[in-house]
């Protein structure tokens, strides 16, 4: 199974989401940015590298928040949501949009299916209600 690290960056009750561009798998779906964990790399190293590569943001990884296994047609992924702090001005080097979403609105976005359990748990753990 493929391990994929995803950044959970939260600021003032909002969380960063990016949209997968045309030509990518899951085009048009919103996700927590990140990518596959490479051999020899920790999940934290992976997410810091991916956030630099995809958004040119400095990123400091904190702890794993939650993992979500999902069976796509092309195979299963284990999506590992990592709490992070980012700094800088994002540049869209891979995605076609980026937004900071109030947690209350998170489930109204067309999220990649593997992300939905993590979004729900974020809402439960950090939401106002
Ligand atoms: N980055 C990221 N990928 C996700 C999320 N949710 C989800 O199902 N995925 C899936 O996880 C897989 C790996 O993501 P990716 O394509 O960004 O990773 P990558 O750049 O390392 O791999 P690649 O170069 O083979 O495409 C993709 O099939 C993607 O659709 C998510 O929240 N973030």
From TrEMBL:
The keyword Metal-binding applies. Pfam families: NUDIX (PF00293). This is 8-oxo-dGTP diphosphatase. Its cofactor is Mg(2+). It comes from Vreelandella populi. It is an enzyme of class 3 (hydrolase). It catalyses: 8-oxo-dGTP + H2O = 8-oxo-dGMP + diphosphate + H(+); 8-oxo-GTP + H2O = 8-oxo-GMP + diphosphate + H(+). One of its GO terms (biological process) is DNA repair. Its EC number is 3.6.1.55. GO terms for molecular function: 8-oxo-7,8-dihydrodeoxyguanosine triphosphate pyrophosphatase activity; 8-oxo-7,8-dihydroguanosine triphosphate pyrophosphatase activity; 8-oxo-dGDP phosphatase activity; 8-oxo-GDP phosphatase activity; metal ion binding. Residues 1-124 form the Nudix hydrolase domain. Keywords: DNA damage, DNA repair, DNA replication, Hydrolase, Magnesium, Metal-binding, Mutator protein. Belongs to the Nudix hydrolase family. InterPro entries: MutT-like (IPR047127), Nudix_hydrolase (IPR020476), NUDIX_hydrolase-like_dom_sf (IPR015797), NUDIX_hydrolase_CS (IPR020084), NUDIX_hydrolase_dom (IPR000086).
């Amino acid at each position: 199974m493929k391990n994929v690290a995803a950044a959970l960056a939260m600021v003032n009750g909002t969380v960063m989401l990016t949209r997968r561009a045309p030509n990518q798998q899951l085009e048009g779906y919103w996700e927590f940015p990140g990518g596959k964990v490479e051999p020899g790399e920790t999940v934290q190293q992976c997410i810091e590298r991916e956030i630099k590569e995809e958004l040119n943001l400095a990123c400091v990884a904190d702890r794993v928040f939650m993992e979500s296994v999902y069976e796509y047609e092309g195979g299963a992924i284990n999506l590992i949501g990592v709490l992070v702090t980012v700094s800088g001005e994002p540049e869209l080097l891979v995605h076609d949009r980026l937004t900071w979403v109030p947690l209350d609105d998170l489930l109204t976005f067309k999220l990649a299916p593997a992300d939905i359990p993590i979004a729900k748990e974020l809402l439960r753990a950090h939401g106002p209600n």
